[in-house]
Structure formats: structure tokens, C-alpha cells
Design brief:
Number of strands: 10
Shape: globular
CATH topology of the largest domain: Aminoglycoside 3'-phosphotransferase, Chain: A, domain 2
Strand content: 5-15%
Structural class: alpha+beta
Strand order of the largest sheet: 1-2-3-6-5
Length: 383
């Protein structure tokens, strides 16, 4: 697997120090020919890249003659430890390492990962930079229709197919999650208890408690401590490479292809487990899929894996991976951000503009989500 080459000016360690000479070196690594940057405009886009370090767009002006194929803008993604998420070692630089080791090389056409022109890691300060392709300002602000969602899930199968039967190679990459299904397990047990105790101080405590009941608190806490039960059942299912954070903010379409970004949680797993975040957010994605998420998503992924890609995986194996992933990964979602957001009226996640002020609406979403979780726990025969 390849490793990206370093540049002589990787000593630049702050956004303010980036100048036209440094950007010229970046442009030369795009493979678009020789060009000289004469000036640029830096725009701050958001602070909730994985570590809250920030995402910037650099708009570039060139000396003439300007080569036809040079990029008019490039993205800088900075990742640092996120104070709002007690992650696992390696989370910050995992995406940069994926690029450095060529993890996305050779992916088939329906699925696209933005190109990275250059990556820099500073282990001593737990920070990394990714200079990457700019696919457009509004690309990830989409209204997801059911056909669009089905295409994205079917295209996701090409990622799983690309790494099918290559688990020995994946195990040689220590920066990957090798048991990524749970992702957040056990670290939210105490925050869950504290958040449920905080309900009493809310003006609408009675209404909140009708949804966030003691029995459901017990369920969430129990599921967060079920790794030893659920993992062995996941591990015997077919294994390949998973994104592990597939949901609308990380997906879009570009030139007819499904685009996936934010690979901080990438690792091995069973294909159906890559659907559980989409399912947990189904009402927010498109009300048409409410009550149909399991059938719609699982069937579509299986069609992509088995019929499109010819992989030896059964519908039941995809379904089991989905159900087990859902009960292992989503319990924290009901607390952070949903219950915390309801109690505060705003999202507890940095730079997330989700409006939690309509308590009644969010309690409706929570009730329906709890019912789904309870039904899935029963269907998967967890207890």
C-alpha cells in the first residue's frame, strides 16, 4: 500500500502560516500540471470536522498562463481531539492514515471518496491535516428521496465488495478499528445516568418521563454493557471494510456517484452494521421510510452485495448484522444528542445547529425510536 510523500514545508503548522508558496506545492500534487498560486482567499467553513479543528476552503488565483486542469479551490480539513467526544486512541488521524495507505484506491465507479492531495500528521500534538478535493459548497445539503437513499445504499455495497475476502490485509493496518461495531460502548454509561437524573429539573419533566422512562433508562444502560454478548454474534458474520458512520451529513451525490466523507471510524465489520445510523435517523432523513427502514435498507444492501457484486452473503446475514449493530451502536444516540438536546433546547454537539426547542416533536421522534429499538432487541433475541 502506498504512502504519501512529505513536502519540504510541512513545518507550516497553523492555518495563518499557509501562504501562496505552500499552496503552490499543494497544487503541484494534484496532478493537474505546473501552476503558480499568486494569491488566495481563505474561508472558514465549520468547526465540527472530527476533532473540531476546522474545515477551510482556499480559493486560488494563479499566475498566467494558468493550466486548464488546476483546481480553483481546495479544502483543508484539520482534525484534533474533540472535547465533546471521549473517543478512542487513533480517532483523530485515522482518516489521514486511510489516505496515506491508499485504502480507497481502486474503488469502483458508483462510490467516490474525495481525493486527498497531501496529508500531514503531528503525533506529538495529536493533530492532522488533510488537503483535499473541493466538490462544492452545497453538495452535502440534500433532500433525500427514497430512490436517492436506495442508490446510496446500493453503491455502499461496492466498498464492502472491494475489501471482501481481504481481512488479512485489513488486519495489517493497525490504525483501523478491528471491532468497530460498537464505537461508543461503555463510555456513556455515567453520562446516561446523569442525563436521566437531570430530567426532574425541566419544566416539562412529566412529559419527558413518559418517553424516557426508568425501564428505558435501564434498557439503554444494559445495552451499553452488552459487548461481550453481541460482539461474538457479529464476529461470525461475513467481515469486510465498513465506513461505520453512514448518514446524510457524510453522504452526497457527485456526477452520478455516491460520495462518502468523514472516515474517522472506518474499520472491519459485517455489512449490515453500516446501516444502523441511517435507520436511527430515518424520520429525520425522509418520513416516507418511517416503519420501512429495516426492510428498505437491508433489502437494498443485500441486492447490492449479492446480486450486483455476486458476494456469497445471505439476506439473513445482512439482517442480523443490521439488527445487532443497531442495538449495539444506537443506545447512546438516545442520550447524546437527543435527550441532552431536549433538556437544553439546543444540541450538545459542537457547531451542530439542530433545533431542539420543539420538545413535543422530539419526544414524538424519541418515542418512535424507542419502539424501534425495543422491537429490534426482541427480534435479535439479545436477552
Amino acid at each position: 500500500m502506498k504512502r504519501m510523500t512529505r513536502m519540504p514545508r510541512d513545518s507550516v503548522q497553523s492555518v495563518e502560516d499557509v501562504d501562496k508558496d505552500y499552496l503552490t506545492q499543494i497544487v503541484k500534487k494534484t496532478g493537474a500540471g505546473e501552476a503558480t498560486v499568486k494569491g488566495f482567499q481563505r474561508d472558514f467553513l465549520q468547526a465540527n470536522s472530527f476533532g473540531g479543528g476546522g474545515i477551510y476552503r482556499f480559493r486560488l488565483d494563479y499566475l498566467e498562463p494558468k493550466p486548464v486542469q488546476v483546481p480553483n479551490s481546495i479544502i483543508l480539513k484539520i482534525a484534533r481531539p474533540n472535547p465533546h467526544f471521549d473517543g478512542q486512541p487513533g480517532d483523530v488521524c485515522r482518516e489521514a492514515q486511510c489516505y496515506q495507505y491508499g485504502l480507497f484506491d481502486g474503488l469502483s465507479q458508483p462510490l467516490y471518496v474525495p481525493k486527498a492531495y497531501h496529508t500531514v500528521m503531528w503525533p506529538e500534538k495529536n493533530e492532522c491535516w488533510i488537503w483535499m478535493e473541493d466538490l462544492g459548497a452545497d453538495m452535502f445539503h440534500m433532500n433525500w428521496t427514497v430512490p436517492m437513499l436506495q442508490k446510496a445504499v446500493r453503491d455502499l455495497a461496492t466498498l464492502h465488495a472491494h475489501w471482501w475476502g481481504r481481512t488479512d490485509e485489513l488486519r495489517q493496518l493497525p490504525f483501523l478499528f478491528h471491532r468497530a461495531h460498537g464505537m461508543f460502548q461503555r463510555i456513556y454509561i455515567e453520562p446516561t445516568k446523569q442525563t436521566f437524573r437531570a430530567i426532574d429539573a425541566h419544566p416539562l419533566a412529566a412529559a419527558i418521563k413518559r418517553v424516557y422512562t426508568p425501564a428505558r433508562e435501564h434498557l439503554l444502560l444494559k445495552l451499553q454493557d452488552m459487548e461481550d454478548v453481541v460482539y461474538p454474534r457479529l464476529d461470525v458474520l461475513p467481515q469486510t471494510l465498513l465506513h461505520h458512520d453512514v448518514w446524510p451529513p457524510n453522504a452526497a451525490f457527485h456526477d452520478g456517484r455516491t460520495v462518502l466523507i468523514d472516515w474517522a471510524f472506518v474499520g472491519m465489520g459485517t455489512p449490515g452494521a453500516d446501516l444502523c445510523i441511517l435507520s436511527a435517523f430515518d424520520e429525520l432523513i425522509n418520513p416516507e421510510i418511517v416503519g420501512r427502514a429495516e426492510e428498505l435498507l437491508v433489502e437494498t444492501l443485500w441486492q447490492g452485495l449479492h446480486k450486483d457484486q455476486g458476494l456469497p452473503i445471505s439476506y439473513d446475514e445482512v439482517l442480523q448484522g443490521y439488527r445487532l449493530g443497531l442495538v449495539l451502536r444506537t443506545p447512546t444516540f438516545y442520550v447524546m444528542p437527543v435527550l441532552m438536546g431536549i433538556l437544553a433546547g439546543v444540541s450538545p454537539v459542537a457547531n451542530d445547529d439542530t433545533d431542539f426547542s420543539n420538545t413535543e416533536a422530539w419526544l414524538h421522534i424519541s418515542e418512535r425510536s424507542f419502539v424501534k429499538l425495543e422491537q429490534t432487541v426482541d427480534a435479535a433475541a439479545i436477552f
